[in-house]
Amino acid sequence: MLANEEEKPLAFWQGADRHEQQERKTLTIILKSGGCSWNRCLMCSYRHERYTGLSREELATRLIRQLRFVADNVQIKEMEIIKLYTSGSFFDPDEVPPAVLEEAGALFRGKIVIAETRPEYVNQDRMDDFISRIDDGSNGKPLYVAIGLETTNDNIREKSIDKGFSFEGFKQAARVARNSGVGIKTYLLMKPLFLTEKEALVDMKQSLTDLVGLADIISMNTCTVQRGTDMERYWKQGAYRPPYLWSVADVLANAPMEVLCDPLGGGQSRGAHNCGECDREIIEAIKYYSLSGDRSVIKAVTTKECPCRDEWELVLSQEMPWCMPLTR
Ligand code: SF4
Ligand SMILES: [Zn+2]
Fold it and tell me: Is residue 36 lining ligand 1, measured as CB closer than 6 Å?
């Protein structure tokens, strides 16, 4: 019987993020949901985490229980920002039924909520409704939608990620969000499949330039090789290497705006890494910059000496692309 079962989210943790020039206390919650409607991205393993075969009512019940479990185990009133992830779209009503948004709205009223969604689920009614639930007047922008744009290049998003929407689709969602007073958080992905190190570096720099004025918050994910993904298959064949930390530091040191970055899996073979000797210092510099906005340390590590720096420069100049057809 559902009635007496406890339901826990996939994960939840407390931390800190830089937000509007300040360090803020965050609560991140990863909810198990009905699952991503797209379910195809080449690097994504989260999409396998889903309930199957539940009615909408049962799905809503399970999700509401997850939220209540968090509320029972965390001092919500001490948190400033609530980050809601579903491994899909918080605003897809088939994945997260409306009753769950009502519950979340009541639990997180007065907080800044950052909720992940694909752009096709950003519509004015949903934005207005959720804002009215969480907004008690204490935050200028109480809601941000977090969209995994990954890159502003439509060809790379299609061929290297299979993301299923365009930059124009993202911009349209951003316009709808803005009309409702909703902020835009944009996730970018450093080095998806099939790009050389140089191509990945150029793509990220161009994406950041393209996003000036379009996104309120930009978070750069360094690609990690997750289990059970197409990316893992290529990685095991030696056909993919996650980005060098040198590339990550170079992007952050020269970005035209502040960029958040937490290099998950950094220093390991499945995550952004260098030679193993210099990784820790660069990762610490990235984390420090991400939380403080102070670029001095990240700029300093870009000129650090290590033998693997020559290797990185050689890779940038010598690695050849293996092209994919532009047409079918
Ligand atoms: S849209 Fe997001 S959750 Fe869905 S498959 Fe792509 S990366 Fe995974
Ligand atoms: Zn090194």
Answer: yes
Q: Please give the structure tokens belonging to residue 145.
A: 């939608």
Distances (CA, A) of 89 to 17, 101, 236: 22, 12, 30
Between vectors from CA 21 to CA 278 and to CA 180, what angle results, nearest 5°?
A: 120
* pLDDT above 90 for 40: yes
Supply the residue whose CA is at minimum distance from atom 5 of ligand 1. 39
Mutational pocket test of ligand 1: of 33, 46, 85, 166, the residue with most ligand atoms within 8 Å of the beta carbon: 46
Contact 215, 174 (CB under 8 A): yes
- Assess whether the C-beta atom of 118 lies below 6 angstroms from ligand 1: yes
> Is residue 87 in contact with ligand 1, taking CB distance under 6 Å?
yes
pLDDT of 2 over the 60 cut: no
Structure tokens at 226: 């997750």
Every domain of the chain and the residues it spans: 2-243
Mean pLDDT value of segment 90-97: 96
pLDDT value for 261: 97
Q: How far is the CA of 271 from the centre of ligand 2 (A)?
A: 15
Per the CB < 8 A criterion, the answer to whether 107 and 69 are in contact is: no
3-class state of residue 189 by DSSP: strand
Q: What is the Cα–Cα distance from 290 to 287, expressed in whole angstroms?
A: 5
Cα–Cα distance for residue pair 71/67, rounded to 1 Å: 6
Superfamily assignment of 2-243 in CATH? Aldolase class I (3.20.20.70)
Judge contact between 215 and 247, C-beta under 8 A. no
The CA distance from 33 to 49, in Å, is 8
Rounded to the nearest angstrom, the distance between the alpha carbon of 79 and the centre of ligand 2 is 38
DSSP 49: -
